[in-house]
User: Fold this.
Amino acid sequence: MAQRKVLVDEILDTLQQLYPDAHCELNYTTPFELLIATILSAQCTDKRVNEITAPMFETLNKPEDYLHLAQEEMEEHIKGLGLYKNKSKNILETCRILFERYNSEVPRTHKELEALPGVGRKTANVVLSNAYGIPAIAVDTHVFRVANRLGLAKSGNVDEVERQLMKRIPREKWSDAHHWLIWHGRRVCSARNPQCGQCPLQSMCKYAIAEAKKPQGKPKPKTKAKA
Assistant:
């Protein structure tokens, strides 16, 4: 157990050295803008979401700004994103709830956030961590993949991966570790063709070690040139 903790600490220290400036790559200025951007980020890249929200947030940056929008109008703002029809419906309903129940403030608890349409555990964690500084680990596709590959977690279930990470990573590092894992997944440990040979974590990574042990394919025999 002590040996495992040393390895986890070494992995976290290496990630911190690699990405000392890691942060949320969604652009926002308020908790509300972050909430909307995170809802929009489902199955979309942060870069694409930022392209959509930059002009939108110039006029739609408070819940009350959305109250008189028809769903078709909301769809026009975000139609460049996937699932835009469902996201439009959820955003409009979420804005109505925030205005009527929370005086247009974004709540600060998992329970209240996850009761909002379009807000799941991951989105709630992103908002709590980045907007309010409450330690949390949001498990998106990058965190899920990298944590399993490194051996920081071992599960095919997103919630279980979050629980394992919360157990193995010190609470004061939860939010930073979330960003480190995301940045590593985007820059090195991609879903396809991860750059294991260039990764400083290679010697500590269960996935890389297992891949290195796999037998290499035999080279194809050379064919003689025809006369």
